[in-house]
Design a protein that fits this description.
The chain is mostly helical. It has 29 helices and 4 strands.
Length: 666
Amino acid sequence: MTILVAPATTGKMYRYSSALKVIIATFVLGTLCTIILKADSSDWTPEDSKAENAADALYNQGQLDAAEEGYRKVLERHPDSATALMYDVKGLNALWRIKEALPEAQKAVELASYDGIAQEWLGMTLVLSGKYSDAIPVLEKSLSIAHNEETSSIWLAQAYLLSGKQARSGEILEGLLKGRTREQQSVTADRIANGYYQMGNSAAAATWWLRAAKLGSKDAAKWLSWAYSVGYGVSQDTGDSDYWSRRTDDPSYPWFPRLSNADELVNWASGWGLVALILATTIILPITTIGTLGFVFSRQVTKNPRTHWSERARRSYPFQLFLAFGSFVLPLVYLAEVDNYPGSFLPIPKWILIWLAFAIAAYVSNWTVVWWASRYRDNPGTALQNLQDIGTIVVIYLPTMIVLFIMSLNLPPQWGIEAALVIGAGVIAYFWLQYGGCIRVARLSGLLIPADSDLREDTALIAQQAKHPLPSVWIIRWRKANAFAYAFANAIVVSTKLRSSLSREEIKSVLAHELAHLCEDRGTRMMRLFGPLVFLLPLFTVSLWAQTDTWEAILACYAFLIIGFFVMAKRARRMEERADNFGKEAETQAGTYPLALAKLYEANSIPAVMPGKRKIHPHLYDRLLSSGITPDFPRPKPPARWGIFAGLLLVAVNIVCLTAIWLLLF
């Protein structure tokens, strides 16, 4: 049997190899210890650690200047400590003192090139300083050391993104989410968002906060609520802010909890499902509320032809007010309420949905109103005709309000040159409207057309008799029998219904009434010109006044204006009585003007005696008596006052229902 024996040199080689390994290991360990001792001096004391912790506490509380001062004091005691340098870099970066932070970050890497944290802080500082290409290899080295994969990956993705390599940036971030649970993805997305926040990339931070919040991060929902409330990286939106605030379990609405499965329903309906839900609400709710309340409040309305028109008008007047709220106010409620829905769940810009909901609510509300109006009106028209009438009323009566509202939307947050320019532009627009702008707007909208030759001839004759410059005369497309004057544009406007409802002589007397308003004294004209502006301007600039703590001055100003309003109303009533005298003087046959007034009241279903006292326009019954005509009907009672309360109830019910739907789901 042959025994194979290993050569004696084998044992020697083994011993030599082991000794060599020990020597090399000792050298490496000694080198590392030298580097560590060089990086973090051996004289580091517990007091230094305590100071670092105190500075960190200030940093976490947002007291960045105080925190940086604490970091700096430690660094002054240990100028060659990589740890102290990195803490100081942290404080400087938070204060955006990047030029000071960069050399310290580079020195920290020189002292501790083995340390992934040092590489990470250098890469972060390079990104903040705009040196994206230089940051990429540093952050990749930090990843190779694998100290903090998430943080380094986030900053590396930012460096690639800012270098124009968006695809690579997306790959890195999506790679962080792969293979993780929903909760882990939520935490990672939140960290990504906070990383972008530290970098100052507001849009990316908001995007990732949204993603994290949808995954269930309450901290991200809190930040997202703040972002939407101030417009950080997203359009300012109170609807989204309130929604994400509730997702943080904020006890703002403890009295009205959400549905237990609200999140599942919202996630299921997000996108076009949510759009369908909102639009369905704008269809069903107006029909239901107007229909239900209309059924209750329409019981006193009558369309019996044997009942005198004055009694029909008296009984239907409160219901007309109720329906007016449905036509005018209710669509505005839906416009405002849709703005509360979170736009982050919508597949289209929210402003498109807002105006779409407003248009649908306006049509549906007016369709329901027209349907109910048929109970007391022989020819209520269609929903589109009713909407056209609303547009006419807006053009006639509300252009000043619209101009001042637009002005208020463009006001800066505080007084200054910009505020003065915006207010000045609003005042100039107001005067432009008064001196003919309203006529131009109405013509551009297609509502106004030039008057026919008969109207122009009669107006010229009356103006000549009154020795007043010839005014322009227009016809407005309106299903309400009415006429009015633009005093500062020297124009008279007659509606199509008035033109078709009265004879030529009756229209002539109405034209004389309107011409009287063009011939008013200078004091009255100045009150009409400056009164609305003085009253409305403080109201539409209240956002500026509120910051100056001058509420007492504003209230005193309005108290004075209210007194002035009553004085102006009293003068306006005298001007109406004067205008009635002009109308009677233009008669070629006695009784033409008062009979024309009676026809207008009947055509518009206006009661012959209105509720309240000392109205600007005298009661028709009194106007007939003052003209020497005894009406063919007894003096009716004023109409009931429940119409306004019914209209307010209609609006309140819709607001409550819309708010309840929002609170249950969002």
